[in-house]
């Protein structure tokens, strides 16, 4: 993917992740740590009971991280498939005898279209992740 297109996708995804981290993940982390601290304050409980308590505290955070990772992987896979289609189109054009500047122009337009399409998916993906994070408790 051309550097400018790659930088654009990276910036948009980074903004989304920062927003999720600030507005949702940090809250969940705070809850997890407070819960874990409460487990440790149980001086009469056995080590295994405290350990199980801490594990229960960490479960929502693990689910949240898995959810975000899964969504980002799906997004990356879709974008990769789109750019692979662009590579195929460029190769076909080159094999038909087109000159390199024409192939580069096609590739840039095609990848630009992939990026536009996928950047436009970010708001719905963000809503889906936020809804899923809100449902984890």
UniProtKB/TrEMBL annotation:
InterPro entries for the chain: DUF842_euk (IPR008560)
Pfam families (alphabetical): DUF842
Coiled coil: none
A GO cellular-component term linked to this record: cytoplasm
Family recorded in the similarity comment: Belongs to the FAM136 family.
PANTHER family: PROTEIN FAM136A
Protein name as annotated: Protein FAM136A
Species of the source: Dissostichus mawsoni
